[in-house]
Amino acid sequence: MNWQIRTVLAGILAALGLYVIFNPLRVTTLVVGTVPWLLLTAGAVYLIAVVMRKWRRPITMILPAIVGLLLVYAGLSMKFGDPRTVGPIGLPFLFALVLLGGGIAKLLTTLDVRKSRYFLVFVGAGVISVLMGLIVMFNWSAVSAGFLGVVLGLELIADAAYLAAFAFRDRDKEEHREALG
Fold first, then answer.
1. Which label site among 68, 76, 111, 146 has the fewest CB atoms less than 10 Å from its CB?
2. 75-79 mean pLDDT
């Protein structure tokens, strides 16, 4: 996938994230209509990015694909089932697992981009996802609806920064230069 398409996808994720951050209570009260579509969109963007990315190491492809599939499953389960659960699991707990999985996947991909000038963006996006996942995981029974909306918005922005860093890395042809030595 060329860097322009990735940049547009990152912009879409960032816009969705900003919308959620500025409307956390509204978004969480509209769970039945809005959040499932946000999850489906984020999952689709993850899966499109995985499919269009050049194959390097299987782990850097498998983990983001799993996160994308989990996001799609969560969106479909909330859309067609109980909006407070995804299957038999409560939304805050599952959301924490998705955040942790996404953060770990992002951090694992940093092994391939250590020489990139966008390295700190990759690491920052992964760390933000892991930290938010841990906060939700260990406080999941006390998490408010507004807080979940803010966390979802921050995660979408972290995903947008991560995807944009890959786009700019492709634009700058860093991977090609690393291959040449």
1. 111
2. 81
DSSP3 helix / strand / coil % (the chain, rounded to 5): 80, 0, 20
Is-contact 110 122, C-beta < 8 A? yes
Q: How many structural domains does the chain have?
A: 1
Structure tokens at 106: 């992002």
Q: Is 164:10 a contact under the CB 8 Å cutoff?
A: yes
Say if residue 61's pLDDT is above 80. Answer: no
pTM, 2 dp:
0.69
Which tokens hold the place of 145? 């609806």
For residue 93, what are the domain limits? 3-180
Helices (H), ranges, 83-118 = 91-109
